[in-house]
Amino acid sequence: MADQIPESTISEIRSTADIVDIVSEVVLLKRAGKNFQGLCPFHSEKTPSFTVSPDKQVFYCFGCGAGGNVFTFLMQHEGLSFPEAVRTLGRRYGIVVEDRQLSPEERARMAERDGIFDVHQQAAAFFRRMLLESPEGRTARAYLEKRGMRSETIERFSLGYAPPEWDALAKYFAGRRVPTTYLETAGLIIPRKSGSGFYDRFRDRIIFPITGVSSRILGFGGRVMDDAMPKYLNSPESPVFNKRRSLYGLEAARGRCRETGTAYVVEGYFDVLALAQAGVTNALATLGTALTAGHVKTLKGHVSDIVLVFDSDQAGIRAALKSVEVFRKENMDARILVLPEGHDPDSFIRKFGAEAFGAAARNARSMMDFLMEETIRKHGLSVEGKLRIISEMQGPLGAISDRMARSLYIRNLAEKTGVDEAMIAERIAPTNPPGGGRRGPAAAGGGGPAGEACLTGRHIRIERKIITMMLQFPDILPEVERRHTLELFEDEQLKSIGRRILTQYSTTGKYHVSDVIEALDDTEREMTVNLAIGGDVWDREGCLRLLAQFESGRKRQKDNLLQKIEAASRNNDQALLLKLLKEKQHRARKRQTIN
C-alpha cells in the first residue's frame, strides 16, 4: 500500500500529525508520566492498559497487544486501508495526497465514501431550506416551537424537514449530476418495487443530521410530528454509518464531556436538544435504539462517568435492566437515573430546570444497586422471592473481579434481603480470574501477547533488551552495526526487527519508531511498539555495558559448547556428539558471515 503514495507525502503527514490528538478523539487519555493512558478502544477492560507515547508517536495496549503509529490506529479503529488513513490525515492537516496510483478498487471505495459524505451535506442543506423557507415547513416550524425549541437550538443542531411528497429529495438531486448509487447506498432514496425510479426514505418528518467527531454527516434521523409509526426512522447502515456505534449529539457534546468527565445518555433526539438548550450540553442519544456494546466502546473513549437516563415507565425500566448487562459484558461501570413518574428528560428539564436535573443525576444509583433494587421489587421478600433474588444476582455479582467490591455488594444484598451474608457469599463464585483476566506489563513479563514466545531463556531476554535499547536510544545504532551484534542473535524475529531499525537508520540518516513499524508485519509491529514504549532510561555507557555483557555471554556459550563436545567424545555418546558438532558448525558459519 505504501508504495502507491509518495514516501515524501507519507513522511510529511507522519511528522505533522500528533497521535495524541488523533487518539484522544475516541479515547479519554490521562497523563501518566511522559506518556498518556486510557481504556483500550479495541477490547473491553476496566483498568487502563492502553498507552500512547507522544515522544515516539506510537500506541500500545498491554492488554490485547494492539499497537502501531497514527496510521495504524486509524486503520484498526476506522477499518481503513493504509491509503485511506493517509488521505484522511492529509485532509485534516491540509496536506495534498496524490492518489492517482491507487488501485481501481481502492479508488472506487474512496470515491464512494466521499460521494456519500457529499450527498449527505447537500441533503442536509435541502432539508434545512425546507424547514426554514418552504411553505411546507410551516407545520414543522410550529411543531418545533410547540416543543420549546428555540431558533439558536435549531441552528446549532442543523435541524431540517423532509416534505411529504414521495420523491421531493429524489427530484432535487435529479438535475445535480449526483450518481444515484451514492444516494441509494446512503439510504436517502429507495427503489420503487414496481416500475422504475425511486422514492424518498424520509417524508414529512423532522430531520436530525447525525455527525461524527470529524464534523461530517454520517446519516440522518427522522421523527414524525403525530402518532404515525414508526416514530423514529434512521438512515440504514452504510460505508460511513454504523448506528450501533453512533451517538446523536456527540460532536456538540464532546467538549463538555471531556471537561466534566461525565456524559448523560438519553433515548431521544428531543431529549438531547432540550437538555442542551437548558445548559446541559454533555447529553447524547442512542438514535432511538437500544444501547449496544458499540455505544459503550464509543462512550468510554470520551468520559469516565456515564449516567444513563431513563423514563420511569415499564419500558424505561426494561431498557435500564438491559443496559446493565451490556455494560457488564464490556467491563464498564455506569450510573442509572430513573426520572420521576410521567417524565422523560425533555419534560423534566423544561419543568424543573437544569439545577434539579443535576441534583437528580448526582443521586443516580450504581448499576449494581439498581439491579438489586429492581430484582427485589420484582420478586418480593418472601422465602421464594429471596431465593430467586439470590439466584438472579449470582451472575452479576460473580462477574465482579475486585474481591473487596464483590464482598461489599454481597453485604449490601444481605442487608436488603435479610439473608445471612456468609450464605450469599457461598453461592456467589467469581466468574473471572483475579484482575479480570487483564495482562499488564507485569503479568506479561513486559512483553504483551506478541512477545510471550520470546521470554524464554536468559539470552533471549538480553536480545530483547538490546532491541529495546536500539529503539529508545538511537545514538547507539552505529556501534551495534560496527560490532555486528545482530548476527549473534538466536531469535530470528528480534534479529529481523533489529535489521529493520538499522536499515531505516542507514538509508535515511535519521531514525524514528513510527517510521520503522510501517515496514513490519503485525506480530513484529506489536512487539516493536511494546518495547519502544517502555520507560527505560539509557545513556551511552550503559548501552556499551549491555553490548559487552551480551558478547561475553556468547563467548561463554561457545566455551561451554566445546566442553560439552569433549565430554560427549569421552563418553562415546555418538548421537549427542553429532548434534553438538552440527551446532558448532552452525556457529562457525555465523562467525564467517560476520567476518
Descriptive account of the structure:
The chain has about 600 residues and is an alpha+beta fold. The chain folds into 5 domains: about 1-100, DNA Primase, Chain A (Alpha-Beta Complex), CATH 3.90.580; about 105-240, DNA primase, catalytic core, N-terminal domain (DNA primase DNAg catalytic core, N-terminal domain, Alpha-Beta Complex); about 240-345, 3-Layer(aba) Sandwich (Dna Topoisomerase Vi A Subunit, Chain: A, domain 2), CATH 3.40.1360.10; about 370-435, no CATH class; about 450-595. It contains 26 helices and 16 strands. A 5-stranded antiparallel β-sheet has the order 1-2-3-4-5, with helices on both faces. A 5-stranded mixed β-sheet has the order 13-12-14-15-16. A 4-stranded antiparallel β-sheet has the order 6-9-10-11, with helices on one face. Strand 14 (about 305-310), helix 13 and strand 15 form a beta-alpha-beta unit. The two termini are about 35 Å apart.
